[in-house]
Specification:
CATH architecture of the largest domain: 3-Layer(aba) Sandwich
Bound molecules: guanosine-5'-triphosphate, magnesium ion, zinc ion
Order of helices and strands: EEEEEEEEHEHEHEHEEHHHH
CATH class of the largest domain: Alpha Beta
CATH topology of the largest domain: Rossmann fold
Strand content: 15-25%
Shape: globular
Number of strands: 13
Structural class: alpha/beta
Helix content: 25-40%
């Protein structure tokens, strides 16, 4: 039998098969991916399994993956697969509570593009938006080939646009704790009802209401994966010289830089820096780039 992993809980896996959920474990000796991920099986994996006499599923093998969305915190640690076989990653942020942070979105965009997974940006809590904030976001991403949806899980505003974007696809919601990932989820699948809690006042970063990656599949085949909030997103496996190529808005300019490759940092006659001065590239976006560039150097230094 062939099913899909929709939930991982310790050493137990929930396999979706013909509309029913089968509690399963891994066969002792199972062949996994060559690359050494910290988790052998993840939500979104297609698996072959059988059911033993006790009704427990035994996962025998994992089908080849189309892609994996991973995170890695330190240079030495192994990568965790958050989910795999995705059609889309949805980077979720909120206008406030927790406060908007586009640098975080930029990191998700790079991480997704690195795995060749399309990204959609969702800015939630539209009901809390102040004047001109949506324009700020638009101008920040001017020149970047990306879709941005403003919505409110609370009022339902903009949710239909998101529904259209996720129809019949498999999408992963990712973002800080408290931005409203589960709330968006509940809006779209009111029959499932994920747990939602108030953002804790003290940290403003929430308290991780969702603790497990979990996928839900609707009758029309639309699949949505909710994840626990993440605090940071390291970019340890990207080369400094490679970083600029992930910035659509820098690409054309880079060809006019005097140095090639140019890191658009201290080099003279850098076209990217010129466009920043002319306000064609948003200054904050450029700072986000530098921030990543320096974090890459830091990681490399720590390695030795
Ligand atoms: N004002 C407003 N509040 C919202 C909106 N969406 C969600 N919230 C609130 O934000 C808080 C956090 O929502 P959750 O859906 O639990 O956030 P989450 O991203 O799933 O958080 P974790 O599971 O911890 O990662 C709750 O108090 C929600 O009621 C919205 O559109 N507007
Ligand atoms: Mg949640
Ligand atoms: Zn340059």
């Amino acid at each position: 039998m062939t099913g899909i992993i929709i939930k991982v809980f310790g050493r137990f896996y929930t396999v979706l098969y013909n509309g029913s959920e089968i509690n399963s474990v891994l066969r002792g000796k199972i062949k996994t991916d060559k690359i050494n991920y910290s988790n052998p099986v993840a939500v979104g994996d297609t698996v072959d399994f059988l059911i033993n006499n006790d009704g427990l599923g035994i996962i025998e093998s994992i089908k080849e993956r189309k892609n994996t969305f991973t995170r890695k915190d330190g240079v030495r640690s192994r990568e965790d697969i958050i989910a795999c076989n995705l059609d889309q990653v949805i980077a979720v942020q909120s206008f406030r509570n927790p406060k908007l942070n586009l640098r975080f979105v930029d990191r998700i965009i790079i991480r997704s593009r690195r795995s060749k997974i399309p990204v959609l940006v969702c800015i939630n809590k539209l009901d809390l938006m102040k004047k001109n904030e949506s324009q700020y976001i638009r101008s920040y991403y001017k020149g970047v080939n990306i879709d941005i949806i403003f919505l409110s899980a609370l009022t339902g505003d903009g949710v239909d646009r998101l529904k259209k974007k996720i129809a019949k696809n498999r999408s992963l919601l990712i973002g800080y704790s408290g931005v409203g990932k589960s709330s968006i989820f509940n809006r779209i699948y009111p029959e499932v009802e994920f747990r939602v809690d108030d953002v804790s006042e003290s940290s403003g970063k929430g308290r991780h209401t969702t603790t497990n990656v979990q996928m839900v599949r609707a009758d029309d085949g639309t699949e949505l994966i909710d994840t626990p909030g993440v605090r940071e997103f390291g970019l340890v496996d990207i080369d400094k010289s490679e970083l600029g190529s992930y910035f659509d808005d820098f690409k054309a300019a880079s060809e006019k830089c005097r140095f090639r490759p140019c890191l658009h940092d201290h080099e003279p006659d850098c076209e990217v820096k010129r466009l920043v001065e002319k306000k064609i590239i948003h200054e904050e976006r450029y700072i986000s780039y530098l921030n990543m560039l320096y974090s890459i150097s830091d990681n490399r230094n720590r390695q030795y």
